[in-house]
Every structure is written in structure tokens, then in C-alpha cells.
Fold this sequence. Notes:
Layout: H1 11-14, H2 19-43, H3 58-74, H4 99-103, H5 110-115, H6 121-140, H7 146-173, E1 192-194, E2 197-201, E3 217-221, E4 224-226, H8 233-241, H9 253-262, E5 270-272, E6 277-281, E7 284-288, H10 299-309, E8 311-312, H11 316-325, E9 337-343, H12 357-360, E10 368-372, E11 387-390, E12 399-400, E13 404-405
Parallel strand pairs: 9-12
Antiparallel strand pairs: 1-4, 2-3, 5-6, 6-7, 8-13, 9-10, 10-11
Helix pairs in contact: 2-6, 2-7, 3-6, 3-7, 9-10
Amino acid sequence: MLDFRAPPIDAARMRRAGRDLLSLALMDARNHSLRWLQAFEQSGRKATPELHAEADPPLWTLGHLGWYQEYWVGRNVQRHRGELCDPAAPRLASIEPGADGWYDGSLMPRPTRWAGELPDGGSVRQYLAATLDTTLELLEHAPDTDAALYFFRLALFHEDAHAEGLAVLSQQLGFDAGLWDAPAPLPQRPPLLFPATRARIGSEGPGFAYDNEGPAHEVALPEFEIDAQAVSWAQYTEFVEDGGYDEARWWHPDGWAWVQAGGRRSPRHVDRMRQGVLQQRFGRLAQVPLTQAALHLSWYEADAWCRWAGRRLPTEAEWEHAARAGGSRGFRWGQVWEWMAGRFRPYERFVPGPDAAHSQAGFDGRHRVLRGASFATRERLRHPCYRNYELPACDSQFTGFRSCAA
Length: 406
């Protein structure tokens, strides 16, 4: 099973994929997960207690992927109804009697996932294989409609998103699994000017969309100037060398408290910034090309750089409009997840999907929005409407930013 790889498919096409393409993608995603299981086993790395608050155990994550697919596809007797299904309706029993207790995130908060007794790697492999077999069999007989394929697509993208989470954990633990391409240097292009317009924002059919991407709506955008690419290490280094971490005036009050509490002098995983950036990359201290996008930056650091530079973070609407309309003009995204100015909130007339927890955990007024994708994001997950979110202090993810004229 480990030798199967599907060719890269862009997100727009994957969101409309029929049974045949979806079947190949589901097998590819599951094989990718199994490669991660093998990589963690071979690494022998163990998480330190301080990581327990911001990451899940690899075996829990991998077992959860099988559980999630089974919960929404194999056990869901209303799967044919798609987004109209009743998520509280009774389900079939799992093929693994202990699965709900082990892998249902709502029943097992993060701290208990490290302390609990989980099945071993061999058992997780068997569960992943069995749940995929069931999924593929059900997919073969499913109608080729958006409603009937909704949960198959949801399970696929859920697995792809967690694959990036495993890449983040491998960075935290310090080993290179070799399952992604390194971030590429970016040619520096001048900022782009977009005229005032009424922009269409959010996802609309046909095909799959996450609940927080809708409903699609128009937004009046004044003229704005936005960077053509994410802020590079060369640009961020200027802020550090100018004493950016020493002056409270550049920082949001909560950000300055975060800097002081952690004794921060540079971004996470960086050992040196003067005379070139040295950063820990998957267990190896590497000289980072200054033209690469700066990463492992919190929202506080992104906001502070913008204040120092006399610029600002983009709004979601500005970023999405530029991503959709600016590709032919040199707008590039996908090297790092990019922090937005605003907080993560539902669009007007938002309707939660069956997996309500996907969005509502972030609608607490504390989380900030991330847009785009990173070098570790699977190709079929990269979509200009995709809305990610994290707390503003988060710097463990592959996060960076771009700026707009103030």
C-alpha cells in the first residue's frame, strides 16, 4: 500500500471530483498517512512535555483519521444527504469497539491524548486499512452528486490537513521525514495596486466548500496596494537588526507581553539573524536563503513588523480578491500560511456544516485568520477561499505574512 501516489490535482478540480478521481485521492491520502506513521516510528523521537499543549501524539492523529472517515462515511447512515444530514442521528457501530473513546476529539481533550493508552502502530495500520476499504466500497456505489460525495470529500481534505500537522510536529521534534519539498526562494516583485471594486468573496457551487467559506457575498473594496509575495527573511531581518524586539511601540499590547514573557529576540527556531539567518529545519541547523518567505512567525510578530514598516496586514477580502485576480500580475501565494488583519468570524448568514467543530472552535473572538497555504500543504487543499485560523501567539505552524500600504 505504501507505493501508491496519485498525481497532483489542484484544489478547484478536486473539490468537484467524481467517484473515480476521489477514489484515487483517498488512497493517496491514506498512503501518505501511513508513510507518516512509518516516519515517526523510524525517528524514535518523543515529544517533550511542553509540546503536549500544542500538538497531538502521532498515533492519536493517525488513528483519528481512520475514525473521522469511518464516523462521517462508514457509520453515517445519512451520508447521502450531504450537508443536509442530521449530525446527531444514530450511527452504526465502529469496526473497532474502542475507537470513539480513543479518537473522538470531543471526548478526549488534547492533554488526555498524551496520557491515555492508545493502540500500537500495528493496530492503527489495520484500522486505517479497514476503514479505507469500507469507504472505497461505499464510494463505488454512491451517486455522482455533490450531496452524495460531500462526506467523501470532507474526509479526504480532513486527512490532507492533518498531514500538514504531522509535518509541523516533525519540525518540533527535529527530524526530516522527506515527505515534502523545501520552500522555494521567491523572486522579489514590486507591490500590486488593485483599483476600488466590488469583489465576490467566499465559495459557491458546484462542488465542495467548507462551511466557513460561505455564503459567497460581495464586499466593497477601496483601492489597495498589497505585496506580490510574502515578506522575506531579508525584509524581516531588517526589523530585528533595528531593535524591533526591544521597542514596545511596535507591538500590540498582548504581543509585547508575549515577547517579554518568552524573552523573544527572534522568531521561533532561529539561532542567528545577523550575517544571515540560521534556522533549525527538521533537525538540521541550516543557512536560510534570504529570499525565502519568513516563517514560524506569530500574528504578533507579523503585526509588529507592519507597524515598524509603516504598513499593515491585509484584510481577508483584500487577500482573496488579490489571489483570485492577481495571479497573472505576479501575486504568489503558497509558501507560508499568511496572517490576516482580522479575527476569525463567520460570514453574515453563516450556516454551520455537519462537522460544526471545524469552524466554531475558532469563533471565540480570540483566533486570527490565516489564508493561503504552506510548502507542506497538499496541492489539492490549496484554495483561495480556504480559511484557516490560529491563536495570535501561535508560531509552531508554517506561518508568515504579507503587507499592504497603510
